[in-house]
Design brief:
The complex is a heterodimer of chains A (394) and B (99). Chain A contains 12 helices and 15 strands. Chain A has 394 residues and is α/β, with parallel strands linked by helices. In chain A, the strands form 3 sheets. Chain A has a 7-stranded mixed beta sheet, sandwiched between helices. Chain A has a 6-stranded mixed beta sheet with strand order 9-11-10-13-14-15, with helices on both faces. In chain A, helix 3 runs parallel beside helix 4 and helix 6 packs across helix 8. Chain A is globular. Chain A starts with a strand and ends in a 5-residue tail after the last strand. With 99 residues, chain B is mostly loops. Chain B has a domain of 65 residues: Alpha-Beta Plaits (2-Layer Sandwich). Helices cover 5% and strands 10% of the residues of chain B. The N and C termini of chain B lie far apart (40 Å). The chains are: A alpha/beta (394), B little secondary structure (99).
């Protein structure tokens, strides 16, 4: 019944990669994800995996090598953060449009500038429209579990899209937590072998990939990507069901924490959900009906399901660890609110931009959000829905 | 190979524009990209063999007798590299449509 361990988030991700034993890993070190390729290269050197480790000269090359490997018919993985992801930008879109199910471990960090190496979600939010499936992880355990489920989702014939598993830089990547690992054989059986239908190194079927795609064709190919993204939702749930059978650990599109009878609720992603749970518990003790909706699947965005889950609350705060700088609010906020609007759910909702550049967000700040929500829940319309949490003023 | 054109619905197209067939570049006639046109002057040509290896489109046909023939204008993009390497003035470039 599992192996009890204590690992950092980066160790958990590297361990998952070791057990998955992909054909190719191409990565370039960048804080705070450096340890993932570092640990993994040790596994390669010690002969614990059969992987071809490509020590590339940049992140652009890391993603290019993954694309080449995956197109050739191999299973390829990588890890990066912040500006490393920015440097991959061009290839990120090529990976998804070529329909290559590459799996990436993204350890979230602020994208410069000014230069900052600490956690926020600006790197992930920058690629939210790039056609990658995006899973977020509250804990080291979730980062590990999401990676184990990743290939089954990405490689599904109805999906065939790349996938990134996000976790918070330093907050989980460098914190050691208790974790339950699976036995190597169980992972091997669960993940399965990769046998793509079409691949470049197939001598019996010479093919061309990534050709010129002008006015008559690109539109239809983008629609196919959109269709695959829609299909991914059910596949993610199916894979989670199998994973639960094996581990007992249940995963959905999002987690509802004491949300069922909640009057006020916070929506957030990654480690801040842990802090919010703490606050929800203490408020519940005082008789305040607080709840949390923690996003796990950000792409595809479960708009309809989220709207339904929030339909009964009186006020919602959406916490974004990155600002869209659009004059309206964070990316998660705009997704949640448009999802509610389209599905006919009207709840006073506000955007809180928080924790930028690794600014600590404690229970005190989260408590203040719930306090605001108690006020907001009495109003029909919120006056100032675009808010900053924990900002120094005056 | 599955034939697709501008009337093919999305559901019948391959993902990512993949082409499950080899040697299909032949079907893509690049000759209509041309704005300048090379003209072959056989009287000046001594069949030295310098022009056809530099053609990026393989648009200079060479027979079994190792001699070149006139340009294949279905594929010639008019880049002019052949005219540049010809030491004998046997290839001249002309604006397309002009005599």
């Amino acid at each position: 019944m599992g192996i009890r361990e204590r690992l950092s988030g980066n160790e958990a991700a590297a361990t998952a990669m070791k057990q998955i034993n992909p054909d190719v890993v191409a990565a370039f070190p960048i804080t705070p994800s450096t340890e993932i390729p570092q640990y993994f290269s040790t596994f390669v050197d010690n002969g614990m995996v059969d992987t071809e480790f490509v020590a590339v000269e940049s992140e652009h090359s890391a993603m290019s090598a993954c694309i080449g490997a995956e197109a050739a018919g191999a299973r390829a993985m990588t890890a990066t953060s912040a500006n490393g992801l920015s440097f991959m930008w061009e290839m990120i879109y090529i990976a998804s449009s070529m329909r290559l199910p590459i799996v990436m471990s993204l350890v979230n960090r602020a994208v410069s500038g000014p230069l900052n190496i600490h956690n926020d979600h600006s790197d992930a939010m920058g690629v939210r429209d790039a056609g990658w499936i995006m899973l977020f992880s509250e804990t080291n355990q979730e980062a590990y579990d999401n990676l184990l489920m990743a290939h089954r989702i990405a490689e599904n014939e109805k999906v065939l899209l790349p996938l990134m598993v996000c976790q918070d830089g330093f907050i989980t990547s460098h914190s050691i937590e208790n974790i339950e690992l699976l036995e190597d054989e169980k992972v091997k059986e669960f993940v399965g072998e990769y046998h793509p239908k079409h691949y470049l190194l197939n001598k019996k079927e010479p093919i061309a990939m990534g050709p010129m795609d002008l006015q008559s064709f690109l539109f239809e190919h983008k629609y196919q990507q959109a269709e695959a993204m829609c299909n991914a939702k059910q596949v993610i749930l199916d894979v989670a069901k199998d994973f639960e059978k094996m581990t007992g650990r249940k995963y959905g599109l999002f987690e509802e924490y004491k949300l069922e009878d909640a009057e006020i609720a916070i929506v957030c992603m990654n480690s801040t959900a842990g802090t919010t749970k703490e606050v929800v518990d203490s408020l519940r003790e005082k008789g305040v009906k607080a709840g949390l909706l923690k996003i796990r699947v950000f792409r595809p965005f479960p708009a309809e399901e989220i709207a339904k889950a929030l339909s009964h609350v009186k006020a919602v705060a959406v916490l974004d660890k990155a600002d869209s700088l659009n004059g309206v609010g964070g990316a998660l906020f705009t997704d949640v609110t448009s999802g509610m609007q389209v599905n006919g759910v009207t709840v006073p909702t506000s955007s809180y931009v928080y924790g930028i550049g690794g600014r600590d967000t404690t229970t005190k700040e989260i408590e203040s959000v719930f306090k605001d929500l108690m006020e907001d829940s009495k109003k029909a319309k919120i006056e100032n829905p675009y808010r900053y949490l924990g900002l120094r003023k005056e | 190979m599955t034939y697709i054109d501008k009337n093919t619905p999305a559901s019948e197209m391959t993902i990512g524009g993949n082409i499950y067939d080899a040697g299909n570049a032949r079907e893509f006639k690049t000759g209509d990209w041309r704005s300048v046109k090379p003209v072959y002057i056989p009287e000046k040509c001594i069949q030295c063999g310098l022009c056809f290896p530099v053609c990026p489109e393989d648009a200079i046909p060479v027979g079994k007798d190792q001699k070149r023939a006139d340009f294949n204008y279905d594929y010639c993009k008019g880049c002019g590299v052949c005219a540049k390497v010809c030491p004998f003035g046997a290839i001249t470039m002309h604006v397309e449509g002009e005599k």
